[in-house]
Design goal:
single chain; transmembrane; ABC-transptr_permeasesu; mainly alpha; 251 residues; 10 helices; Lantibiotic immunity ABC transporter MutG family permease subunit; transmembrane helix
């Protein structure tokens, strides 16, 4: 545990003052500003504005994760071709440290985003249809449903480089947009990049008591199970893979 703490502390020191940390603060703030300006000139219902905001966040999240993972792995490659990670006496812990850092940054960015948006609806637009708890729950739903993608992109970045991670993120965003339609019914549960979108849509329907929420409840339950099991499985398998990884990377 002490080694993990020291690894996390060391990794955090690496990102302090770096673009990776700054973008997790600036991008959410800019997103809140853009949506506030846009919504101030639209006549949507308040609930529709909230739904649209979270759907857009879920849509863009995979692409941003691809960029973040690329920056993380490319930084390690530039610092010595992963030698610090490979030479660690506890390589699995070193990998988990990297993962936890980007997860904490991602969670922080998500909380900044939703809290800022909630404050904007309340104090600027004066039309917040939900309590603060709604936004916190939505933030954690989006975050935890994306942990699988974080791990996957970290693997891709380590193995094939940052460009591959970014390319995969763009593809996942496009797939998420496609599966947000009826075309994704019954298929989205097998596409991790669409979990966040579908979960947040169903959460919103549940909160506004939309009767359509009950139509695909069994599909939602299966999606939640696959999300939990898949996330645990990919973290476990990745730790085993990283303990034997030799540092090859295609550039």
């Amino acid at each position: 545990m002490e080694f993990l703490y020291n690894s996390i502390k060391s990794d955090f020191e690496k990102v302090k003052g770096q673009p990776l940390l700054i973008m997790h603060i600036v991008i959410p703030i800019l997103a809140v500003i853009v949506f506030t300006v846009y919504y101030s000139h639209t006549h949507w219902k308040p609930t529709s504005k909230v739904s649209g905001f979270f759907q857009m966040a879920a849509l863009i999240f995979p692409a941003l994760i691809g960029v973040v993972s690329a920056m993380t792995t490319d930084q390690e490659f530039s610092a010595g071709k992963f030698q610090q990670m490979l030479a660690s006496p506890m390589r699995t812990v070193t990998f988990l440290s990297k993962l936890l850092i980007i997860l904490l940054l991602g969670l922080s960015a998500m909380l900044i985003l939703v809290c800022g948006f909630s404050a904007s609806l309340t104090y600027i637009l004066h039309e917040n249809p939900f309590g603060f708890l709604y936004y916190i729950c939505a933030a954690f739903i989006l975050f935890f449903s994306s942990v699988f993608i974080y791990v996957l992109h970290l693997i891709i970045g380590l193995k094939f480089g940052g460009t591959a991670s970014i390319g995969l993120g763009i593809f996942e965003t496009l797939l998420s947009a496609l599966f947000n339609t009826g075309l994704g019914d019954g298929k989205w549960i097998f596409a991790p990049c669409t979990w966040g979108m579908r979960f947040i849509m169903n959460f919103h329907k549940f909160m506004i008591k939309d009767k359509d929420f009950l139509q695909n409840i069994s599909e939602l339950h299966l999606g939640i199970i696959l999300c939990v099991v898949g996330t645990i499985a990919i973290i476990t398998l990745t730790c085993l893979w990283f303990s034997k990884w030799e540092g090859q990377q295609s550039q």
